[in-house]
Amino acid sequence: MRPALSTLVLMLPLAAAAATPLQVLHWWTSASERRAVEVLAAHAAAEDIAWRDAAVPGGAGQGAGKVLRSRVLAGDAPDATQIIGRSIADWAEVGVLLELDNVAGTWPQQLLPPVAALLRHRGHTVAAPLGIHRANALYLHKPTFDRLGLKAPTNWAELERTVAALKAAGVVPLAQSSEPWQVAGLAEAMILAEGGVALHRALFVRHDPAAAADPRLATALRRLRQLRGWIGGAAVDRPWTDEVRRLQRGEAAMLLMGDWAKGELLALGARLDQDVVCSTWPGTQRQHLYSIDSLGMFTNDYARSPAQERLARLLVSPAVQADYNAVKGSVPVRRDTDPARLDTCARDSWLSFAQGAAQRAPSMVHRMATDEASKEALVDELRRFFLDEQATPASLQQRLAAVLRTLPQRATDD
User: Fold this and answer.
1) H/E/C letters for each residue in the chain?
2) Dihedral pair phi/psi, residue 74, rounded to 5°
3) How far apart are CA 184 and CA 49, in angstroms?
């Protein structure tokens, strides 16, 4: 009999007999993500915490979310779990997250402001941050670009010329899966490029039905349809790790993916600025479509609270922030990060995120902009449009307006 998904866990050995075991549920299962987990487990062991790994495969954490909900309902919550965006407030509202005020007193001074704000619910800190991901990153296969004399496109016209040159040379322009979350991530970047942060927030944070009629959204959707012809053949559901490998092998020239792809490229042996070049999706150079990883601690066993608090404090420390994010591909959450010590991709990401709220857009796909149910409804509509060549931008705009009217309305972007 095939084991239940909740039993598909990877168990790391206990650090020491005296260490307090904490089980951590997450969806970090790729090569680079496993390395990042090993970094965290090693640091935890030095604090007498035995990291017990409960990893659930699946891109964007959909499988892990289902396992978490079933375990909480069964009274078997993990000690800690990977938790993102609006999910923090959802779980805190239920009253199952440990308040970390004992260790978070200095976090508002240490953390970048949007990170510190995300972790708080009803006046209490209820999660510990790990890193900031940029979801509008564009990766280029440098040998291909050098061979054809191409440069990173910075606007749509340049992108079209780049694609034409790649196709003329027999190169697949864009690595792209038709997995729902990957398609929606591409759509998010297109909308950000055409409508900026304001339109993105109107659609995905405030759920404003009037925003669906914006002509800039129509332009983004027409261009999304155009991209459908740049992926080299029929749309196929492939894991994001497969798309990263296609880029690394030169089977496609470009890849739009969050900077977790950078961590995976490094794990595959790719060299930044030599084999692969980081850029941003054309038209979003000054904007940061972000996702913030964090861990929430569950209150199922208060005897473990001291160890949970030690783990939370540890995650924010400069050493863990530097070591973890260098492997994961993300950037540190601390204000005192020295950009000069980051690689070229991370430096641009950190500086872009830190520059101000007007340039930051919370990712809908990665639960930063909206709740889980709203995200799923929006992702389904975007993917349906991407796959159905008969669907028109106008028809999708009408469908999005109808969907947005059913979702929770927010008066502000906060």
Assistant:
1) CCCCHHHCCCCCCCCCCCCEEEEEEECCCCHHHHHHHHHHHHHHHCCCEEEEEEECCCHHHHHHHHHHHHHHHCCCCCCEEEEECHHHHHHHHHCCECCCCCCCCCHHHHECHHHHHHCEECCEECCEEEEEEECCEEEEEHHHHHHCCCCCCCCHHHHHHHHHHHHHCCCEEEECCCCHHHHHHHHHHHHHHHHHHHHHHHHHCCCCHHHHHCHHHHHHHHHHHHHHHHCCCCCCCCCHHHHHHHHHCCCEEEEECCCHHHHHHHHCCCCECCCEEEEECCCCCCCEEEEEEEEEEECCCHHHHHHHHHHHHHHHCHHHHHHHHHHHCCECCECCCCHHHCCHHHHHHHHHHHCCHHHEEECCCCCCCCCHHHHHHHHHHHHHHHHCCCCCHHHHHHHHHHHHHHCCCCCCCC
2) -85, 0
3) 38
pLDDT of residue 5: 35
Half-sphere exposure of 351 (CA within 13 A, CB side): 13
Q: Low-confidence residues of the chain, pLDDT below 70?
A: 1-17, 413-414
Q: What is the pLDDT of residue 12?
A: 45
The pLDDT assigned to 21 comes to 96
Name the nearest CA neighbour of 159 among 198, 193, 195, 199: 193
Using only C-alpha atoms, what is the Rg of the chain? 21
Which pLDDT belongs to residue 59?
A: 72
The model scores a pTM over 0.85: yes
pLDDT for the residue numbered 233: 80
Question: What is the rounded distance in angstroms from the CA atom of residue 124 to the CA atom of residue 111?
Answer: 15
Dist CA 248 CA 32 (whole Å): 14
